[in-house]
Amino acid sequence: MPPPADIVKVAIEWPGAFPKLMEIDQKKPLSAIIKEVCEGWSLGNHENFALQIADATNFYITEKNRNDIKNGSILRLTTSPYQTAVQLHERIQSSSMDAKLEALKDLANASRDITFAQEFINLDGISLLTQMVESGTERYQKLQKIMKPCFGDLLSFTLTAFVELMDHGIVSWDTFSVAFIKKIASYVNKSAMDTAVLQRSLAILESMVLNSQDLYHKVAQEITIGQLIPHLQGTDQDIQTYTIAVINALFLKAPEEKRQEMAHILAQKQLRSIILSNVIRSPIPINDEMAHQLYVLQVLTFNLLEDRMMTKMDPQDQAQRDIIFELRRIAFDVECEPNNSGSIEKRKSMYTRDYKKLGFINHVNPAVDFTQIPPGMLALDNMLYFAKHHQDAYIRIVLENSSREDKHECPFGRSSIELTKMLCEILKVGELPSENCHDFHPMFFTHDRSFEEFFCICIQLLNKTWKEMRATSEDFNKVMQVVREQIMRALTLKPNSLDQFKSRLQNLSYTEILKIRQSERMNQEDFQSRPILELREKIQPEIMELIKQQRLNRLCEGTCFRKISSRRRQDKFWYCRLSPNHKVLHYGDLEESPQGEVPHDSLQDKLPVADIKAVITGKDCPHMKEKGALKQNKEVLELAFSVLYESDEYLNFIAPDKHEYCVWTDGLNALLGKEMTSDYTKSDMDTLLSMEMKLRLLDLENIQIPEAPPPIPKEPSNYDFVYDCN
């Protein structure tokens, strides 16, 4: 007879004694279980003891997490979180360097556990650590020359413990003094600093800036871009990532009036070229976190354009009107005529003629064209940049379109305004960066005026596409749709330079776009007749059942999942698979990643499918709600799912990749009789349905399918034509 569900069989260790095998009743209070364990080893004062998971995490067992104890778990009897906190609080104040170092090392490890962290913080432990950073380490700096490794370790463990404690979100960042900020900043500003100390110092500064506007001002006074730049010129990608994260944080929190000033400083310090040569073109592959930080920097840089994008042109502003005069001068090689040259009416007529050739909507006063926001003055800025920096291309486009008489001229002014608006939409100018996006484009880091150069390439593309389509003014919106598609398809290929982007666009001519559209239409089976739609509807349930069976078969094969603690990856694994009768989930821990399927009998834990209440995904999962390092959560959030069973108990998963995530969430939903909604299911449905439709319609090629079924013919007058083959 199997043991009751509330009874868990575990082994409990105690230093210097043989481990005990014990059955724990999960209905009993934890204090009663600890008392029973202590009495077994004749230990008094059971309230001074606690149970820990005996693995690398050493997390304490509490009433909240006790349901995570599984059959076969190994626990350790140890001092209570309060007692451990008191002991470490005393030990880190030791006068012995070796004792202090060992204590700080233990503190850094223990601080990962929120139960211990709460007790240590209650003892004012954060204040003690900040005091040690501010002044306590000063006396050891004199010994730094002869004890440099020891000093580096001492400071590293101190800062690690501080970061771990603050990660739990128990203490506000606003509580720290200027002296502490100055000390952390000094570690970043030093040219030669221990890597671990530098990494933690950068992480602390980033958190300070992001979590407090007041601390932003204090940090900004202590850290300059020039002091951060050298950290990007090394080869340690983690240090580079944290450095860019600090720059992004300072950029993000800076008041609007200071962002342009900061961008100017970044340009002066050649941040872009340093990132390009030392990060993007480095032989070391860019990891997800670095890709995210580069994406954030890209977004924040483009957001500097928002002010011009949302600024209307003042038709009465002479300085702004002079820009339009400059466009006219460059295009038609004319100088500003003196006031006495000809009549006013003649000059107006000449201006109107030239503004029409330039392609403005309002020929009399083109300034009115720039009152639309977006793109506002940003469009005029782009046009002037194109005219000055790509003068030959600008003159060629204007003149070849102004001399046409066949109504196929491409209006440069109107096109530039609409194109600027489109590029702002594509690059999402003015929007805050997404927390989970890694979509940075290397080509935007290859030029100081990347947006303007991007515009110059695209306006030439627009003119080329206009000619290929033989468009007229009535086709303007159609041309813009084709150009958007060309740009989006080229960007999807992630070109490494603007020249590469330009060559990709050359291959995406209007003819090529038509071919791609035709191919996609064929693949999508774009048949809208009623018989075809009815056939699709009839086939869909069969295809969905096929997908469901495939998902359940994959669950029966099982998957190896990596164990992840609340904030760090651990090199431990567990395996989960569905029984062949689809009634039980078998799961259990593994010592290492398996090479094939793991048999059911080696998986010690079971969860009946009938007990499953719901499948929860993403940020709603309990293991994603824990406060911890957001950087890891960004990587795993989209792969997280949990199974809710019994009374608020969960089996938590982190899928190894997106494919496995879709397979498992689909399979579990299928077991619960719910709809399979993953992207993978939609893709499979489209592919299989398209293939099945093509197979069934093979004999109907080049035959027009009528909207209504043909009429049934009348019966013949006689059946003399029927004969027996035998």
Describe the structure in brief.
This protein has 726 residues and is α+β, with helices and mostly antiparallel strands.
Layout of secondary structure:
Blueprint: E1 7-14, E2 17-25, H1 30-40, E3 49-53, E4 74-79, H2 81-91, H3 97-110, H4 114-122, H5 125-136, H6 138-141, H7 148-167, H8 178-189, H9 195-211, H10 213-222, H11 225-232, H12 237-253, H13 256-268, H14 271-280, H15 288-302, H16 306-309, H17 318-332, H18 344-357, H19 377-389, H20 391-402, H21 412-426, H22 450-469, H23 476-492, H24 498-507, H25 510-523, H26 530-557, E5 559-564, E6 569-578, E7 584-590, E8 605-608, E9 612-617, H27 622-625, H28 630-636, E10 640-645, E11 649-654, H29 658-671, H30 679-696
Parallel strand pairs: 1-4
Antiparallel strand pairs: 1-2, 3-4, 5-6, 6-7, 7-8, 9-10, 10-11
Helix pairs in contact: 2-4, 3-7, 5-7, 5-8, 7-9, 8-9, 9-10, 9-12, 11-12, 12-15, 17-19, 19-20, 19-21, 19-22, 21-22, 21-23, 22-23, 22-24, 26-29, 26-30
Could you list some keywords that capture this structure?
726 residues, alpha+beta, Ubiquitin-like (UB roll), four-stranded mixed sheet, four-stranded antiparallel sheet, 30 helices, 11 strands, flat
Please tell me how large the radius of gyration is.
35 Å
Tell me about the largest β-sheet: 4 strands, mixed
The CATH superfamily of the largest domain bears the name: Leucine-rich Repeat Variant
Q: Which percent range describes the beta-strand content?
A: 5-15%
Q: Determine the number of helices (DSSP H or I, runs of at least 4 residues).
A: 30
* CATH topology heading of the largest domain: Leucine-rich Repeat Variant
Global geometry: flat
CATH architecture of the largest domain: Alpha Horseshoe
InterPro entries: ARM-like, ARM-type_fold, ELMO_ARM, ELMO_dom, ELMO_domain-containing, PH-like_dom_sf, PH_domain
Keywords: Apoptosis, Cytoplasm, Membrane, Phagocytosis, Phosphoprotein, SH3-binding
Subcellular location: Cytoplasm; Membrane
Main location: cytoplasm
